[in-house]
Description:
By secondary structure, the chain is mostly beta strands. Helices cover 8% and strands 25% of the residues. The strands form two sheets. The chain has a four-stranded mixed sheet, with no helix packed on it. A two-stranded antiparallel ribbon has the order 1-2.
Amino acid sequence: MLPSLEAVTNAEYGFIGIINEYGAYGTDPKKQKKVTDYSRATGASFNTEGYGSWWLRDTEFVTERGNDRYVYYIFESGAVNSTKYYRPYTQHVRADWGVVPMIRIKLVDG
């Protein structure tokens, strides 16, 4: 599965989880991911330091913004952000951003 907004802002997991004065999550080096050679070869975008943006699994339906849907992602800097999708005249989902897999392991005593 893809990580959730809740997981990547959870201080118990070592991430920065506070919202700054602009209502956005601040940059977090622990969320920065280097783009792999394979991803580069298949068209992933990245900055001059080799970091790329990647998608989270969360979406948000926001009525006060005109019934648009937003999807969350991690920007190259490690900051959480959201972008509008759904309507043809708005910003659309970027195919050149990556995904980061997440697994959940349940430890059992005994």
